[in-house]
Amino acid sequence: MTLRLLPLTLSLTAFITGAAQAQSLAQLYEAAKGYDANFKAAQSQYQANLAKAEQAKALLRPTAGMGATLSESDYANQLNSAGDARFGTRSATLSASQPLFRPANTAGYRQGMKQLDLAQAQLKTAEQDLIVRVSQAYFDVLTAQESLAFVKAQKIAVSEQLAAAKRNFEVGTSTITDTREAQARFDLVTAQEIAAENDLRVKKLALDQSVGTQNAQPLALKSGANLALAANGDVQTWVQQATEQNPGIAQARVALEVAQLETEKAKAGHMPTLDLTASFGATRYRNGNLTSRVDNNVGTIGLNFNLPLYAGHATQNRIQETTALEEKARNDLDAAQRTVAQATRTAFFGVQSGLGQVKALEAAEASSQSALDANKLGYQVGVRINIDVLNSQSQLFQTKRDLAKARYDVLLGQLKLSQAAGVLKLEELQKVNDLLVK
């Protein structure tokens, strides 16, 4: 009796329509950038934040306005109707003002400039999140494909074992127990095949939804690909990098700076303001007037000074409010730093553990293959029973499936580690993409 095991590369061919139709991880990420609603919303928010930052510049710039009036007057002489008359007045004024000393405006301007930093951090967060989400969906499909491939291969092997058990029973060299055990294992692997097919279907739908394509076909991992791409250095180096570059921490840091400036604005409620003002007005009269008014032009320039004296304790209470919010923002920053540090450590050790697991499963795969070969030989010479062979087959295919999943988990874990450290870029995605079959 011979037992046929399908190689991984051949079994995966059943699910990939061809290299020309398959898409790489980088290709699907580019497709997702133009389709994903969350990412497009983040891009719109980025543009809005840029415009909001530009608005802040107006707080330090001059303002100008123009006004005009038109009036008509009727004069009725009660003593002499010949003295009745109608007069018209037309006037226009152009005025301008330039802030010279307005502490609240200065703080508001600096707050507006922080919107640029906030916009960059938010967009960076969205880009990194999209990379991880697309990669997760991509590797989920590949894992489901390999799981189904192994189940199909196991089904073929079990069916051959079942056929052999039936032949041996017919010729009297084995018992009915061997046949029933093989039939039970065949029924079980059939159920597993149905579940694996459904899981693959669901994972492919999720990938299509992520990238906006129909029937996306991800490329498989190269045989013997080097998985240790990003997890270099020690954990403390990664944590330090995350503290400096993680966009979530950057957003919390900007929020603290904005809160500090809001306190400055509140304190400015006690301070004077000084503006430079200028205006020019022209008045024209029609038909003269009763008091011999003459057309005139008036130009003025001066300083406008204002000193707040009492505002019903509103300013003091506003300062207390902003001070408390500033302390809240400071605590939020501390919490963000601790959360990111913990996430970075978890991601780092997860990658290290994953790499170790891959090595262990590779060794287990070789051992399981040897055990299966030994049990097959023992079954042929009569020192092993059918269930021993079936168990060895199950162990081998389970190990193969776990190994395939562990490999993809390592790649995804490296991307998540870079995300936690705030250094996840398209270049990092391309490194993973290079490990896929072209």
The tally of strands reads 4
Strand arrangement, largest sheet? 1-2-3-4
| Structural category | alpha+beta
Determine the CATH superfamily: Outer membrane efflux proteins (OEP)
Question: Overall 3D geometry?
Answer: elongated
- Please name the CATH topology: Outer membrane efflux proteins (OEP)
The N- and C-terminal alpha carbons lie at a distance of 38 Å
Order of SSEs: HHHEEHHHHEEHHH
Whole-angstrom Rg: 39 Å
Number of domains: 1
How would you sum up the major sheet?
4 strands, antiparallel
Low-confidence stretches: 1-20
CATH architecture: Up-down Bundle
Number of helices: 10
Mean pLDDT: 87
Helix content: 55-70%
Tell me, what is the CATH class?
Mainly Alpha
Query: Strand percentage, roughly?
Result: 5-15%
Characterization of the model:
The chain is α+β, with helices and mostly antiparallel strands and 438 residues long. The chain has one domain: Outer membrane efflux proteins (OEP) (Up-down Bundle), CATH 1.20.1600. It contains ten helices and four strands. It has a four-stranded antiparallel β-sheet with strand order 1-2-3-4, with no helix packed on it. Helix 6 (235-245) runs antiparallel to helix 8. The longest helix is centred in the N-terminal third of the chain and has 69 residues, at 103-171. The model is unreliable at 1-20 (pLDDT under 50).
Topology summary:
Layout: H1 8-13, H2 25-33, H3 37-56, E1 63-75, E2 85-101, H4 103-171, H5 176-211, H6 235-245, H7 247-267, E3 273-286, E4 296-306, H8 314-381, H9 386-421, H10 426-433
Antiparallel strand pairs: 1-2, 2-3, 3-4
